[in-house]
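Inputs:
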Amino acid sequence: MAARHETVARVEAIDVDAYKYGFTTDIESEKAPKGLDEDTVRFISAKKNEPEWLKQWRLEAFRRWLTMREPEWARVHYPPIDYQDLYYYAAPKSTPGPKTLDDVDPELLRTYEKLGIPLREQEILAGVETRKVAVDAVFDSVSVATTFKEELAKAGVIFCPISEAVQTHPELVRQYLGSVVPATDNFFATLNSAVYSDGSFVYVPKGVRCPMELSTYFRINEQKTGQFERTLIIADAGSYVSYLEGCTAPKRDENQLHAAVVELVALDDAEIKYSTVQNWYPGDSAGRGGIYNFVTKRGDCRGRNSHISWTQVETGSAITWKYPSCILRGDNSQGEFYSIAVSNGHQQVDSGTKMIHLGRNTKSRIVSKGISAGKSQNTYRGQVSAHRKADNARNYTQCDSLLIGHDCGAHTVPYIESKNTSAQFEHEATTSKISEDQLFYAMQRGLTAEEATALIVNGFVRDVLQQLPMEFAVEAQKLISISLEGSVG
Amino acid sequence: MIKLANEADAIYEAQYQTMRKAGAEQRRDRAYKSFVERGLPNRRVESWHYTDLKTALAKPAPLAAGDERALALDRTHDSIRLVTLDGKFRPDLSDLSGLPDGLRVQSLHEALADDNPEITAALWPENAGAEDAAVALNGALMQDCVVVSVSSGVKVTRPIEFVTLVGASVPEAIFTRAALIVGAGASVKAIETAGVLPRETSIATQINHLLALRLENASEVDVLSHIAGFGGGSVGVFSLMAYLASHARLNAHQLIEGGGLLRRQVFAALDGEHAHAAFNGVTLARGRQHADTTLFVDHRQPHGTSHEKFRTILDEQAVGVFQGKILVRPCAQKTDGVMQSKAILLSDGATMNNKPELEIFADDVKCGHGAACGRLDGDQLFYLMARGLPRGEAQSLLLEAFANESLVDIADERSHNFLTARIGAWLAERTPS
Amino acid sequence: MLEIKNLHVSVGDREILKGLTLTVKDGEVAAIMGPNGTGKSTLSYVIAGREGYEVTEGEVLINGENILDLDPHERAARGLFLAFQYPVEIPGVATMQFLKAALNAQRRSRGEPELQTPDLMKRVREAAAKLEVSQEMLRRPLNSGFSGGEKKRMEILQMALLEPSVGILDETDSGLDIDALRVVSEGVNSLRSPERSFLVITHYQRLLDYIRPDSVHVMAQGVIQRSGGPELALELEKNGYRDYIAGEAA
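Outputs:
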């Protein structure tokens, strides 16, 4: 018992204010006027020099959005968001489309250095690290730098800001934008369609195995600024790409809105691995500030034998509302969702996935690990469905929740719907606290309560960590320790 | 004032005004207000996610008139028998002979006249489930009820059977309630039977029935529920609201045979330490039947246990629903809650929706749920056929075993045999696939 | 009598049996030996009628009748018994209930009167005693929670009760310790008779020390590569299967 009390006390004493990415960057920025109307949408579209069809697409989305209501079904509570009290576009002033890294404001480069994101290619090349990661860095509303573009181009891979892709590959953007998450999809996705400012675009051509990991690093800096990025990844037939996404934001007393959309398209025999380490500012110990993270992520296994895998480590944000999903349309396609969601302080997490089985012999697997501490609420919400023609669809879901302390909550809400006799769905869920026996055992071997907790939590989330690329897994493991313990770095 | 949105609301308003005259105005007013605030639930109401009652009851039937005709009823169980026919408690059709000491039976009229606060509280429970719109509508429009009170320490050996029957030959609406109040340390076996008279099986009845159980400290109740026989156009909501005080033990088993749209909803409040509740059941549906079983188990005190095991077999175009929610409140430490739902789809037209839910606010708990759906295991089927069993027989054997998984804990052998025989009969009616 | 003629079987796009021919006469015990993954279990499943295998050519006859168009239970009623390599666990179905259902289903389809429970119990008890199957095992659900050895003994118990004319033993020795192997083999040997044919499928020679075969057939690459007497098994034990799998390595 003593061990448990000590653990709980430690966790309660966590300095959630110790968010280490909470600094702000002092940089002059250009903003659209505060508030949202058709002119804001036109302003953004004009800033990006967009073609007429895209401007119209945004405007239609905006008009649709005006008729929609904010969803209320998730277990998250927050005061009404005043959408007129936000900036919808903010760009570092000195970077009107930097051509090379040398054109990037040194202040920005320092920011990314502080975040541990190398933007200078040679830094990586000079290091011991042999694996290369190409980075697209998005600062507030715009992409400030994309690395390794040339090397990727040699392989035929297009990796650039989506605003650039609209100019250079309009046919691809037009064909796929909104084809997975339609502009009318849901309140936040529709808002994003109207006002998205930038994001990453990836196209991997037929038969190409992308030669390096691709990654986007999102940073919200400005006050009162919503971030609405849009990511579109297309893996053409027989191709493979692994994509990583990281996010941080400064500590601010106000809540900042982040409403992103990610669309993945996997054609015949293609595979996309999408990993996220989400570490937006979670707010302080009194529940002030933090990011409202309302994100729509969806992958379309459009081709036969296609494969989409989502892995997420969610430790940040005051509110997380996201359900990375797979539409298993192609016969024999596979979808996976691996998730670790850690909540502490006053965080509210409502996250999970949807696996929509439409094609024959489609398979999906869900492994979700939720850890609640402090005064947080952590909900897994997931849907698995098999439609009439989804012969031999298979799903296995494992949802485990761990509670640390007695002021938090852990909730599991699966929707499992089958319309096909040959579909086989299995779902298992458990909720428990950290085992006394395990804690005692580890402490008897000399670990402190804090170390023992970290050890057990790491064991609890291991299945998911293993899905991450190695460098990311190490980072994620540290992040989980920080989120839960506040003292170990 | 209350604004009536549509024709259905207007009909319910008129029925409410009629029933107010039957007494218990205050209770009815409160229930009706609660109903009007919510309206008939559609799929946007989370606890009704898979069953659209609003559409199903778009045209409310007139309240059952009932009559006094004498009938000869089949008996299945040797029991103290309390028959409600077409919305009226019928002592003349009931078997009240040899009631043991400490057991009391009252009709709505008698219960109201008695004005005993304990009985009123048991009859209009305010724990989990009181928020449900169908329960509220029942409270407003209840035509009759039967209240059974068992004094503290009394062990009733003969089962108490609550029979709710439909005998009308035209579509009617029935709102009835039964309450079973079991005093401290008492023990009771109850049987809940709902159905229609054999000759009326095709009538589209709208029935909304509630059984309220109140288990005082250390009392023990076994409940066996069997709901069957309703015609294709019927809409039935059968609620079970259970309140458990400390060390109370409730063991409930049910067999639901589909008929039209049927919803079985169980609300259990474990409001004392060391309370134990088990709910197990089998649902069988075929044709275009829609069978919904929804459970809400509310752990309010420490050391509670709740175990649920449900099996659903669906054939043809039937739709099955299982929703089960375990709520563990912050003070309910040391809760042990396990819920399991499995379904077998025998036909490609069938649909199963499972929504098991955990809502946990206490850290020192062990809770879990499992849900599975699919078809019969091909290896098992092949093994049985390789030993000479024809396909249909092999399927039936496996399906009986599957259903029996949630009935194995029935202590009373006769009850167990009764249910397995019903399941066997249902399976015998199907053509093997 | 079991006759397999030019049997071709595919699973998906892959042909597993490629024209296998074999006859097991009345009273004969034939052993099929072969390396792992050569289609031995496929052969037993195809004969018993399991779904998922496509017979593209050839026939299988039991006592002169082609059974390939029959359902598994119809084949069983013709006298075919397959002792599974992995007997299936069926929780919820009581062993006795199952034995009665299987026995009477076969009797019905052969036009024989059904056995009543007391008569059945007597037969089961006799067979169980020989195979060291305890009463407690008979009370459990079929194969549920049985050890590997218990499952195999239960298979032979069923064979004794169902009295097939053709018995196929699929890797019956796998997972058995030496004592269980003896019990199972004695059970099989006691069922040998001039009217009954056995096909014993095994990877190791060990089982054939207990169940002495009349003929031994080497199966590899989807066909019978070589046939001979019991001495062939000993030769295989010494030299392994490498002479037969040469072409498969690639």
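Remarks. Chain A has twelve helices and 23 strands. Residues 449-465 of chain A form the longest helix (17 residues).
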